[in-house]
Amino acid sequence: MLLHYRQYDDVLPQPPPSVPSGSAAQQQELNAPGNSTDTSTTARTSLRVPPFHTARNVFGLVRQFFSSTPPSHDPEDVVTLRDISSIPTVAAAELDIPTEPQDFSFYPYPNQSSFELGHWYWNGSVQKSHQSFKQLIDIVGRPGASVHDKERDEWEDENAGWQRMQVTINVPFSWTTTQPGAWPYIAADLYHQSLISVIREKLSNAQDNEHFHYEPYQLQWSAPHLQHEVNIQGELYTSPAFMDVHHQLQESPGEPGCGLPCVVVVLMFWSDATHLTAFGNMKLWLVYMYFGNELKYRQCKPSCHLAYDFTCSYTQGKGIGPKCTTHRHCELFQAQWRILFDPEFLEAYEHGIVILCCDGIKCRFYLRVFTDSADYPENLVATIRQLGGCPCLRCLIPMGRLQSLGMICDRQQCATVVRSDASRSQLVVTARDIIYKKNYGVNSVAVESLLKPHSWVPSSNMFLDCLGPFGFNMFVALIVNLLHEFELGDSIHELDRRRFSANTSELSNMAVRNFEDILQCSIPVFDGLLPDNHNKIIMDLLFIMAHWHRLAKLCMHSDLTQDILDQQMTDLSEQFHQFKAKVCSAYHTQELEHEAAEATRWAEKDTVVQGTVAQKPMAGTSAKGKGKEKSFNFHTYKFHALGDYVNTIRCFGTTDSYSTEPGELEHRTSKGRYHCTDQWAFIFQLTQIERQQTQLRCIKQWQQQQHAPHADLDERASDPQLHHYIGQSEKNYDDFGHYLRSHATDPAMKDFLPRLKDYILDCLKLEEISPHFKPEHDLIFFKHNQIYHHNLARFNYTTYDVRRDQDVISPRTPHCNIMLLKVCDDHGDDDLEGNYCYAKVIGIHHVNIVHVGNVYESLQIEFLFVRWYEHVQKHAWETHTLGRVHFMPLANPNAFSFVDPAVVLRACHIIPAFARGQCNPSKCRLSPLAGDKHNWHEYYVNSFVDRDTLMRFHYGLGVGHVYAHEPRIVAHPYLSICPADNNTGGQRAFRKKRKWETTDLQDPASDEDEMDDYMGIEEMNIFGQEQNGSTDSLIEALEEMYSDHVVNYEN
After folding, report:
1. Is 938 exposed, middle or buried (0-12, 13-18, 19+ CB in 10 A)?
2. How much of the chain exceeds pLDDT 70, in percent?
């Protein structure tokens, strides 16, 4: 292995190391039906012997199982590079399928054309009508169509797996009403599918089954720079919670007379209400179910989840107060879960369900509910009083002690005073007897005295009543909610100027990504707005908050990063207290104008409803609508919940596995289906559309398996195997003479041609070149005397969580900055510059090199023309400071140079340091190419722009950043990484082997064997006159470059 391999070669991501094929085959023989009686005993006794572990891959990852034998079913075997790539690709459904007649079954469609139209309608755009679809079927399907009307009952079944049930609840009326007592009330129609039928459908799908993990494993990381192995948390099937449940199941006695393998099926629920239209009050309450045995990156795909849709309707009866309305809402929610947890589901939860897998082996699957993610679940799911005295979902810490986040006492209390059903069940039973038997009000003193101290509500909890006897703990399953507790919480409300919206403080019409962008870009914006003593506190608070937020959203955690997250949580709590004590007390804060106006409107509305006379403004407000005083408050559940993230990640894996964001994104599916209905009896129609789309996808998947699409050359822009991709077009070009003359006064173009030739010669020294080529400086020139320009450059890189991603660079947009790895020199003077250097791309080019002695061979050289940033301040986690840079002066000979695209790590985010001002206009506008018209004195390097960038600054902690796993190395003689070096050749590195492109006048077809990733355009006439080039300009330029040589260019 070369010394520079890990530092400069692009290491492609790999799935976790797979099980050896021989071992898997041997284990499959042991699980054969003939040996099924011994499987259970063998599985349980094997836990006492050393567990099986795989080999270590290039990233240092090792999988360790609980059994001494490898699993017979390993989903990692079928994972491809495309599966672990986030690069946008052409969907398989969009690729061409052979049109010749095939022996396919398109049931219930009569032929392929009808099926394609059906798939186009139901799974395509929603801006179509049923009538237009029927007309298309009649027109296209009539010629030559053999329509068979028999065996169409399943497709036309109006139920299609969905069931409709009326939800009835008992509404309590107190003894003070005219008709006291509990009266039954039909609250809503619930449309749902049987959970067992959905699970059977999931496990019988061959495509889903190959990605389904039957057995969890522990993922460990061992790298050269680590002193010991560390545990990795990422997927739910690698979490300690999954492994504990699997271990308990394998150690349990099992079902009598059953020797089948026992498998845990992890269920994760999402529930939330959504508006179906932009205008109107059409709402739908949806429940989604995901499987924790699958890769979390597949769960976001529409074909990998199933939804349970139901709607809730309410009455506004006279005599029912707001407390009773809230109680009735909670009762309705729990009554619907009572229907979903039917006897069949509870039987499978306790004793398992036997299913014949796709590989022909029967297994007994045990259902386990792990998480329930909901939007503000205090009242409905957890049956906890919202904004009560004990607002936490997981502990009984009172409201007065929520500000003790991060302290030792707070950690101890969170671990000791936990919520449990043992202390709740008897209190709720007693309270319900008082309400339903003695006809007391829901908010009566007798009920409040029982439930208010711990913030319970008098509602039954179906999760605890149905699943509690099997060991299910609802309060552990209600995991943290990063989307609603932090990103949409009260932590970001102070931004109003500089490069954001016209009035950011209003926070109107913003999505989650907008709040996230505000937080990660807030440090340069707030810098310098307050006095120095307050500015330091604000800067530290924003830095720690952004750091904590990015760590909490990591898709792959290790023991090391979890310790950092834990420490950041403590630092964040301390910084919030300091902010409140020293900054908030020094300023007078009040409601914004729109908040005060909204409060006034609500107050006027209440007076009209209650029929009272409007009162005078309260203290702290004015009659002119001035907002009342507001102070910073961290006595909230959202602030207290920040301390639960580390423990949740250590138990269930990373937060992206159970975030409410996938559920919010899934709402788009139901909204799209709603437009395909008549918008009257739409719920029933939604169930039919869901079944039709599911069946169409199954047919499409089976069809694509028969004819796997092949990649085309046009798809190279999304090929994850490439490090970078620059367009192959040569339509946009300039003659070198014209290009140099048009920018003759630009400082960036000083010595452009000599520096470019130096760069090319250095590249040629690292190439495996043609045996006919002699790299003398005076014997090479540019083919057609042309330089080719490109608008985009795509850079693929391996992320910290061992996936493939892509950045797009465009010199004409703000997305024009790149980061490169800085190689240490012999002096090791990198205290200020850190591990990376940065540059602004002002041009993306390539040239074709031709040797005078052999005009039939050419070589394409790609390069970036950049302007270098110079370090001003190093990024430091200890002092909570972002790195700062500024442009090198235009007079500096190293300010501009050429960069090999192969050495670019990825794009970076450079933000102006607004507090340090903009450059003097008189000193700008000197270089149109550099675009220095609006330059600032200094810039911040945003290390919080995304999770991968964050882990690059946590040098050595990114699993996928292989270059950071070894000690820094000494620079290669031909590598000039530091822009301040004297070598003006710019960035160099070992590149992929490129072959010379030969133009053979006798046999042009022989060039096909010489084509590789760098495809050049070959011309029959090397010196053919082009659109904006001329032979005279070529001769003049060559005579100037090679004045010492006599060459007959006319011939």
Report:
1. buried
2. 70
